[in-house]
Amino acid sequence: MFKPQEKRVSMSFRSYVGLNDNETKDVDIGVEENFNEQLNTRLLPGEAVVAEAQNVLMYAPLSEKQGKSGILIVTNFKLSFVTTEERHREEHGLQENLLLGENDVCLSIVDEIHQMTGDKRRRLLPGSSVPPKVKGLYIVCKNMRVIQFSFKFSPVGHGKTLTNALLHHAFPRKHHLLFAYDFREPYYNCQRTVSMFHETSDWSKELSRTRAVGWKISTVNQDFNLSTSLPRWLVVPAALVDCQLMEAARHFRSSRPPVWCWSSSQGAALVRMADLQPTITDSRMLVIQPSVIRHSGLSNIVPEARTQENIMLENVRKGHPQRTQPELMELTQDLPTPKDVYLSYCKLRDLCTPDVRQFWIQDNHFLSQVENSKWLSTVSACLMKAAKAAAFLQENVTVVLQEADGRDMSCLISALTQLLLDGHFRSLSGFQTLIQKEWVAMGHPFCSRLGHISNTEIQQSPILLLFLDCVWQILRQFPSAFEFTETYLTTLWDCAHMTLFDTFLFDCERDRLNASQDRSKPITLRTMWDWGEQFVEKDIALFRNPLYVPKKETVISVQSSLPNLALWSQCYFRWIPLLEIKCGGAPQTDLGLRALHAQIDNLREQLAKVKSGEKSNRITCPSISKQRVTSFFPFSASIDSAISPALLSSTLALNSSFVSNEALLDSQSLLNAPD
Amino acid sequence: MMGTDKKLRSNVSQPSIIEPGQPASRPDDPPLLPGEKVMGVAREVTYLCPYSGPARGVLSVTNYKLHFRSMDRDTPYVVEVPLGVVSRVEKVGGQSSRGENSYGIELFCKDMRNLRFGHKQENHSRRNVFEKLQQYAFPLSHKLPLFAFDYSEVFPENGWNVLEPIAEFKRMGVPNDMWKITKINEHYEICDSYPAVWAIPAAATDDDVRAVAAFRSRARIPVLSWIHPESQATICRCSQPLVGVGGKRCREDERYIQLIMDANAQSHKLYIMDARPSANAIANKAKGGGYESEDAYQNAELVFLDIHNIHVMRESLRKLKDLCFPNVEEARWLSGIEATYWLKHIKYILAGASRIANRVETHKTSVLVHCSDGWDRTAQLTALAMLLLDPYYRTIKGFEVLIEKEWLSFGHKFQQRIGHGDDRHSDADRSPVFLQFVDCVWQLTQMFPDAFQFNETLLITILDHLYSCRFGTFLFNSDRERVQDNVKQRTVSLWSYINSSIDNYRNPLYLPRPGVLEPVASVRLISLWKGLYCRWNPGMRPQDPIYQRIRELLVLKEQLEKQVDECKQEQKARVSRNMPTPPRLASPVHS
């Protein structure tokens, strides 16, 4: 869709080490010569430049010695660094987002902005005043990327102007300031494989796919009168009438009574609901001291609410073919709150974004610091919970997940449980369907949790990342169970912050619907799952797992204990060049398998030709023996990952048509290698 | 873990089915190896499995192994442990002990596990097996032969021929203008812990060698380990110079080092990599040892690699065993690993090896490696550096050669470090130096999944037989001792066993490729080898082996290739039947 502009490639980083102030003049001349070429960032339709700083240095990761010079630009979409020394990612086989340049990041992925003064960093908060002279910026992104700029060669005032603009635009206070409202590119949705759960048909399809009986689709929330955060269509026990549901809903937090998400083949269902309201809205009720409410225990629940909960659970029980008593799983007390998850993430992020001084110091105590972050123990707790829910469902017991507002850990546990039990969700389109169903439709507050909008009342929390990490752990234990790869999961986390897609943009379906109908602030909804909008075929090919063997019936029994887990090195370490293994790591296995698949396809085709009597030359498969990719492929932080472009593109081209094993077995192969 | 010897590797927790019809004299007898004999049997013994609870059955002791078979379960449940693995046998409880299973035997093993058996208190029921266990777990302490000398199985391959020193030097292009092969140590008279054949600088005379030997600890003079096929930069190994507190110098040694430097025309420099922390190297001066001063050795740069001694490593592994067996403490797992320092030691060894390889490859400069005696840390470093530099050593046969050469022939004291057949379990000479090397190799296989022809099973099999005493390979401290005891004639080589079923040890992802491996020595990328250290714990599940899937694909590929060829043959035959004249396709082509 966009043609990357021609860029000059230069082989090496320039060293700006040890330049004294009196030498700066000479350098300035050199730098200005560079800028005669008129550098510009590529703007998307609707994108506008807000501020620009010239003669900026961007340091190489974990380096304060090497860098490249260019201009730094803030637009309403991204922070863009444009240089004459850009490398061609295509030549390196690296992933390339069509909407961003190599040194660009979208504004929503910016997590923290620090001002550099000498060796010291000071965090700049949105709304705080920027000092008159900004020498450098240290920017930490939500995907653990660190970008460091220096304004020491920039004209006076450029640093401050740019920092101001960045602080203002990276942390917008209103939703309609997000780029999705400005983006003017026409959109024709061409993805059809993912169920979006916007329509009742998606729900009825899911009901019939899982052969659920005892459940029906209710239209009571069609206009969001029951709950603002639930979808318009609710699957509820068949015996329940809408007025009962309305009556019960107000006793649950966020008005979220039990709703269905999934049924096992035996008939047990997975159901989610919120905690009961501890506060009293009804004037007829007893007055409870606010101080008591704060330590919300069960004792604070109003009897009326308890009764309503029981009525609901009784109906859930009746939804079971054997009328078995459902198992209530309490998530609020056993799992960390969104705030806990955020604090844990912050510690993990600090561990994964070291500067060069911290790196080797951290290495000595890395394991205890990881333990201290509690990230892995949180992952372990989530996996354990999901495994427990899966075990109940396998014993044909209905599971009811109950959590505060039912919008955070419920999404995570519910989705994980289904992933363990139902092979349908382990395909690529199935997984995206699962995210649509359990996260998007059920109202995970993406806008708040991903921090698209800056507001002190909003609790940012990477619950989605925690989920992706859990999925990665399962994938690591069961490498052939999923159609997608870790590269897909990592990419999904990166792209969750691309604020021009609607999938992760809103807090709930109502917000999405309202936004799409508001004529004063028009917005085009475009789904994340249309990956062709962001990536070319060779990058999308790497989303598919060459080891995948589809087995719909298999239940996965994941090991959730901490010693069986690992830190997700691709996602968290890929911006640290010191950890990049040349010619090593998982990509070797991945690419080796892709080549093997290509060879097999090739042979099948030869065989078909020979059998049909066609003249066939022996097709030679390009060998990947000279493959040169690093352990972080297709991501890379290092500047000298020299890969032979010809070899790489041939291997990737070979793999682009590789779909799945089943498809492969009878595919009319597209994997025609050149003779 | 596929393709391993089930008899040896049978996981204590996983019931394995006993094949009927084994040629055993009594129905209770365990399956026996050629040369193996049952020495004692105890009935109604309870094996106290830390994972699946007590199991009752029969405990047999042979001259090779301990064998327990349960009688109270539907599928018989078997525990087998070669007695060489046992480091300590103890009685638990006495005649007056109360409580179930409080009376019995406990075995402490070298492979990270302990086994506990409960016996009936009547009639001293444990006495016989306890005595037999003592005798056959520690035969050398009881004037009995090691099992390897009784073992008589015949294999199609002969592993004793794996290393032919002259041929291996020839592979590296030695002798050449600068390096010669000498048999000065043919009768182990210069150095009793070195091999019989060395490669040394061509210009060095026999007198030089003798003079240098006098100045190096235990006469372990600098000799060639590896030479770069293009740059001629070398890795040489030796022991520390006998500098002492007075700072003694030896002109011959200095000249000899200069000869090593001069043998590499690409560089006018030499790196001396001292594996020890500098403090330890300095402390060694008090004992007459020390390190090369840069004043005395012109153009040599001395680097300390900060790897600790055998005692520190032994203590580190002890802590690791406490952490991994029988159960892991989940909440403190990561900080627990950190507190053992095991991964940190691994990191320093890998970093050292990587540094050596980098100097040789990138700087084209020769490196001389030593520690104190040059048979522990030095062997780790040279072997790993060679593995990084030379793809040959990453093949199965090449890896066997590497172990034969850098570890066995250069006198790593396996007998002392492992304590084969010896009951002094707290002997200060024991240390997991070789285990640490294999762990480092495993780390490399994790970082470079397609660079090695062998798989994890090979590494685990090597370690299992490092202790088992079934093969002669890891017995004794030096070549001299092995020759003296006719090990090659009287025992079977581990490589005979491995090479006779070599397919079990192949890595299906292997792609032979030239070039140097550059590992990243950071704790962030070094992981605990759970497949080894935690393998007795059924709760520690290794990753689902992807090898199975890859093998399937490889088989499919082979079948298709065969089919294509067959079809073509068939067609050709049909064509030649139908057409008497050659078809157009086969007509000569203008060029």
TrEMBL record, chain A:
One matching Pfam family: Myotub-related
Any single GO BP term: phosphatidylinositol dephosphorylation
Family named by the database record: Belongs to the protein-tyrosine phosphatase family. Non-receptor class myotubularin subfamily.
Domain Myotubularin phosphatase, chain residue ranges per copy: 197-572
PANTHER family associated with the record: FI17948P1, MYOTUBULARIN-RELATED
A GO term from the CC aspect: cytoplasm
Protein name: Myotubularin phosphatase domain-containing protein
Organism expressing this protein natively: Megalurothrips usitatus
Database matches in PROSITE patterns: PPASE_MYOTUBULARIN (PS51339)
UniProtKB/TrEMBL annotation, chain B:
Principal EC category: hydrolase
Keywords on record: Cytoplasm, Hydrolase, Lipid metabolism, Membrane
Protein name: phosphatidylinositol-3,5-bisphosphate 3-phosphatase
Gene Ontology BP term (one): phosphatidylinositol dephosphorylation
Chain positions covered by the region annotation Disordered: 1-34, 567-591
Enzyme Commission identifier(s): 3.1.3.95
Membrane topology category: Peripheral membrane protein
PROSITE patterns: PPASE_MYOTUBULARIN, TYR_PHOSPHATASE_1
Positions bound to substrate: 284-287, 309-310, 371-377
Family stated for the protein in its record: Belongs to the protein-tyrosine phosphatase family. Non-receptor class myotubularin subfamily.
Organism: Megalurothrips usitatus
Record GO cellular component, one term: cytoplasm
Pfam families: GRAM, Myotub-related
Catalytic machinery residues: 371 (phosphocysteine intermediate)
Subcellular location: Cytoplasm; Endomembrane system
